[in-house]
Amino acid sequence: MFAYWKKNNIVSLLFQSPYVYLANQKFWVGNYNSLIKELFDIKPDENILDVACGVSMVAPYIKGYYTGVDINKNYIQYNNKKYPANNYICQDFKEIKFGAKSFDQSIVINFLHHLPDDEIKQLLDRMGQLTKNKIIIADLSPNDKNFLARFLYSMDQGKFIRQENVLTKLISQSLKIEKVYTFLSPRRIYKHIVFVCSPRN
Fold first, then answer.
1. Per residue in 97-107, is it b (16+ CB within 10 Å) or e — as a string?
2. Band (126; pLDDT cuts 50, 70, 90)
3. What pTM value is reported for the model?
4. Where do the structural domains in the chain lie, given as residue ranges?
5. Cβ 64 vs Cβ 48: under 8 Å
6. Which numeric CATH code is attached to 2-199?
């Protein structure tokens, strides 16, 4: 049944709703954004860019000036209502037009596994151009030891869940990797890998 749903884009349609996305995060994943926040050292006057921000789950943990970019208009509308003090833009990452070094730090969470290799390089090259200091990249990593994880991964809309060594090679083409962390989500189903990076120039 679930394979039929995925094949016929039913899963994709369901996840156009920010409320479905949030329910999925709460039930299966849990809130790990506070862990991501620990990797930041954000001052109140810093500008932060969140690419493919989704429902902006990391926003409550950001003290600086926050800009979220996402292509899903439903998510952007939800974010504007929930976090009116933040700046949200409904746009494909390929169309981002901020000036060079407009942001002190930037972040992209659970987006790389939706992109083929060439688009990852395009994204990370652009983030390197836009960011002065730190770039945080978090993404799914295979968790083959957990049966439920294998099933949920198979239902994910992203088609490119990569091993750590593959992600490391891709990211290092565009950015300097400073540190790497891996952890299980609070529900201990999803495995995540986090890269703390800096621009090459």
1. eeeeebbbbbb
2. very high
3. 0.87
4. 2-199
5. yes
6. 3.40.50.150
